[in-house]
Amino acid sequence: QVQLQESGPGLVKPSQTLSPTCTVSGGSITTSYYAWSWIRQPPGKGLEWMGVIAYDGSTYYSPSLKSRTSISRDNAKNTLYLQMNSLKPDDTALYYCTNSYNYWGQGTQVTVSS
């Protein structure tokens, strides 16, 4: 069974860069037709899709976050990466990685505060 494990910095200052990781086990991130997304949930709000990296490495982003967001991967480590620049307090959220077969990690809490 595919398992996803996010890890992140916890507390980040405004204007800094966020770089959580998602380590995948039980399946390869390059398996054909798998797509891997980052999704976040701010406190008291709904889920927000941030972007996706497909099995072939192609990426797509939410238009509202595209200018600040980048998703990449390390095939050898079977790990996904999210990078978000110019952080604001509104970026405070629980950050999840998930895949197109609806497997989810437990999420990593990120708080943006000075």
Key descriptive features of the protein:
0% helix, six-stranded mixed beta sheet, 114 residues
What would you call the shape? globular
Mean pLDDT: 95
Summing up helix and strand content along with how strands pair, one would put the structural category as mainly beta
What value does the Rg take, in angstroms?
A: 13 Å
- Helical residues, percent: under 10%
Outline of the structure:
It contains no helices and ten strands. With 114 residues, the chain is mostly beta strands.
Written description of the protein model:
The chain is an all-beta fold and about 110 residues long. It contains no helices and ten strands. It has a six-stranded mixed β-sheet, with no helix packed on it. The chain has a four-stranded antiparallel β-sheet with strand order 1-3-8-7, with no helix packed on it. A hairpin with a 4-residue loop joins strand 7 and strand 8. The protein starts with a strand and ends with a strand. The mean pLDDT is about 95.
List the helices and strands and how they pair.
Layout: E1 3-7, E2 11-12, E3 21-25, E4 35-41, E5 48-54, E6 59-61, E7 69-74, E8 79-84, E9 93-99, E10 108-112
Parallel strand pairs: 2-10
Antiparallel strand pairs: 1-3, 3-8, 4-5, 4-9, 5-6, 7-8, 9-10
